[in-house]
Amino acid sequence: PNAVTYTTVMKCCFRCGNFEQGLEILSEMRDLGFTFDGFAYCTVIAAMIKTGRMREANEIIEIMVGSGVRPDLVAYNTLINLYCRQGKLDEALKVVEEIEEEGLVCDKYTHTIIIDGLCKAGDFAGAERHLSYMNGLGFGYNLVAFNCMLDGLGKAGHIDHAVKLFEMMEVKDSFSYTILVHNLCRARRFLCASKVLVSCLKCGYQVLRATQRAVIDGLQSIGFTNEARKVKLRIRLARFVP
């Protein structure tokens, strides 16, 4: 078999979750002196990160750079995303530094991944700082990043902070409303959730039916049956009035 055959089989192993077999093929390829392109290297590195082999992942990165292969921004973003999902923010930020050292420019997606990773790690102050840093670089309004922060704050129980963030957001979408309503219900703030839901419907947006149901059931559970009926009516009207 040639390099293309080996690489194809190795990628299939990693995609199917057969990481050990994929790494065996990698080792055999290296013993035979085959070389890789940037995408193949990133496939291997991603598999190692997923299996917790951080030392080997870093070694492969060094081999890749030493062989003159330079990943593109899409490949870098893939690595950053994997590091963030594993909670390895320091490693993710190192990759950002490498991107800048290579003369590449991080895009909006790169920064959004970092902000989401910081939120998932509970570092909301860091997420806000990075969002400000991103804005300072000249990027436009990043609704996805704001929604990530909104969701992170709500899940962490910082519901008042989430409400303040929601109120200051220049642009909102259905996800913004759904996130806040859902987390208000989790905090048993059903009256507040109903007001946000009604505001959402008035703006022409929709939230998930399960979230609508949670608001209605929540209002009924605390004895606000009239408010629950009003919300039901507003939801029905929204289905017919654009």
Automatic annotation (TrEMBL):
Protein name in the entry: Pentatricopeptide repeat-containing protein At4g17915 family
Record has Repeat as a keyword: yes
Keyword Repeat: yes
Keywords per UniProt: Repeat
Pfam families tied to this protein: PPR_2
PANTHER family xrefs: PENTATRICOPEPTIDE REPEAT DOMAIN CONTAINING PROTEIN-RELATED, TETRATRICOPEPTIDE REPEAT (TPR)-LIKE SUPERFAMILY PROTEIN-RELATED
Superkingdom of the source species: Eukaryota
Repeat region (PPR), residues: 2-36, 37-71, 72-106, 107-141, 142-176
